[in-house]
Design goal:
single chain; alpha/beta; six-stranded mixed sheet; 8 helices; 31% helix; binds zinc ion
């Protein structure tokens, strides 16, 4: 099986469509690590597309924010404004759907989780090398895919030692090693590359390839501004920060 692993779409329909077009015909299933909504201007089309196309989906902190499960006081002012705007646009069906998403899922030998596999409902960021290595005790599978920080990269543990690489790298999965992989963000990259980021995981070939995909940034920005969302949320898409 080959999987596209997507995270942090953030209601950016242009980026989501570009990624789904990029992997069409190359993968057997789409997996999504949460934060479908928040920041962007197209929450409903993004939720509907992923509800239809994704074989497995877990909740992000933005799903918990817009459905009232996480206090909006947790968010910074831009995220809070976007969460309030989004919550006003969801109907009961979308709210119920987003509220029903699990915090974790297991597909083949991979755990899917938005933030940390250790207490996933605490929404902790795995940023430093130590953060990631500590989290290995919290998942039972060989692989764990995460999002949340919008920073692609991976951590790996094995008898030959520890590895940590930042960036949209490709990796060959080695026998006897476990991996924690951040797949980056589809809809709001923050690693100074504005292109959408996601991963293709080939379970048989035991490879993970991270992809960057150009999309119509200006169209996504125009919708954010027309919606009256904070201009900062449009500006950052251009710089990828
Ligand atoms: Zn996010």
């Amino acid at each position: 099986m080959r999987y596209a692993v997507l995270s942090d779409v953030h209601a950016n329909l242009e980026a989501l469509r570009a990624v789904l077009d990029d992997c069409r015909g190359e993968v057997d299933a789409v997996l999504c690590l949460g934060d479908l909504v928040g920041y962007g201007a197209d929450p409903i089309p993004c939720v509907e597309l992923l509800a239809r196309d994704a074989a497995a989906l877990v909740a992000g902190n933005h799903e918990h924010g817009v459905t009232g499960r996480l206090s909006l006081g947790w968010f910074n002012r831009f995220a809070r404004a976007a969460a309030q705007w989004t919550a006003e646009r969801l109907d009961d069906d979308h709210r119920a759907y987003l509220g029903s998403l699990p915090l974790t899922a297991v597909v083949a030998d991979a755990t899917l989780v938005h933030a940390s596999p250790d207490r996933p409902g605490q929404w902790e960021y795995l940023t430093s090398a130590e953060d990631g290595f500590r989290a290995f005790a919290a998942f039972p599978t060989r692989l764990c895919f995460v999002g949340h920080s919008h920073q692609p990269g991976y951590w790996s543990l094995g008898s030959a030692g520890r590895r940590r690489r930042m960036g949209a790298v490709d990796l060959a999965l080695e026998n006897g090693r476990r991996y924690l992989v951040n797949v980056g963000s589809v809809g709001q990259p923050r690693d100074r590359d504005p292109r959408a980021c996601y991963a293709i995981w080939d379970a048989e070939a035991r490879r993970i390839a991270m992809r960057r995909v150009s999309y119509d940034v200006a169209a996504a920005q125009g919708k954010i501004i027309a919606a009256g969302l904070p201009r900062f949320l449009a500006d950052r898409l251009r710089s990828g920060t």
